[in-house]
Design goal:
- The chain has two helices and three strands, in the order E-H-H-E-E.
- The protein has 76 residues and is an alpha+beta fold.
- Strands 1-3-2 form a three-stranded antiparallel β-sheet, covered by helices on one side.
């Protein structure tokens, strides 16, 4: 509905993470790696729906995480 807000928190697609993939701690990440999306994918979907989108990237963890907030109407 108008004035709604959606927040997406997701790992980013592995692009420049090659140096971090070599440890056994990343085995769980490898299982899901084919399903990680670039944040631009969500941004495009939300903008097509008429939302305004804000993105924050957190890169200090084991891999990049993206937090997107999509607002429609005056929810921003």
């Amino acid at each position: 509905p108008a004035r709604g807000r959606v927040i997406v928190c997701e790992r980013g697609a592995w692009a420049s993470e090659a140096g971090r993939r070599t440890s056994a701690a990343n085995l769980a990440n490898l299982v899901f790696a084919p399903f990680y999306r670039d944040p631009e994918t969500y941004e495009g979907w939300f903008r097509d729906l008429g939302c305004t989108v804000q993105r924050q990237t957190i890169s200090s963890l084991d891999m990049a995480f993206h937090v997107l907030t999509a607002c429609i109407g005056d929810a921003g």
